[in-house]
Amino acid sequence: MDFRKILEEYSYKTELHAHTSPVSNCGKLPAAFDAKLYAKIGCNTLTITNHMDPDKYRRFPNPADLAEFYLSDYYKAKEAADGTGMSVALGVEIRFVGTINDYLVYGISPEDVEEIATYLPLGIEAFYKGFKNNKNVIIHAHPFRNGMEPTPLGYVDGIESLNLHPSPNSRVGIAARFARDNDLLVTAGSDFHDPDRMAMGLMRTKTQMRDSFDIAEAIKSRDVVFDMSGHIVIPYLY
Question: Model confidence over 220-230: pLDDT tens digits?
Fold first, then answer.
């Protein structure tokens, strides 16, 4: 197999999982700085997937206030990327009250964020039943880390099978096998927090991802490859 041809065909690189400060407590860098870093290395699309979690639910009980705070880093990243040729897309990594599971959501607009916030106390089943539509995808992030709870099949579209955050054990082999055995969509992401670990896991596509809806369509198409710091992973050979 000539991987050079694959790289030429799937030439557009997208980071699907990145955190910024201060919206994500774990983020080490401001959103504008993150955007400039990713643009400098030639990434075509950076997806801001900050945490929406019980802590924010306590700090911002009004969903409109939470949405305004949540979107602030996304807009800063977009402004910083203006003129670079790199797109900045919106995502959400949501953790519902009463669980430590995280779910990545793509195929959303800024107008959706306030609605998403209303589901924080309700859980994944209510969220999937109420928010799922034909434009979005809902992905269980790093589902086999310590403490993660199984999500009933039918309440996620797929799993993040290749999460390359170096600290928690994401058990990517188990995740990949689970996705194969259950015919789930899969994604890859760096779970980016600091500059030493940027762009470790990217999605490659034939066209540039201009926004969150392009990303959702690409994930659903399964016509993607993953780039693990230059090591190419073809996720759908089964």
Answer: 999 999 999 98
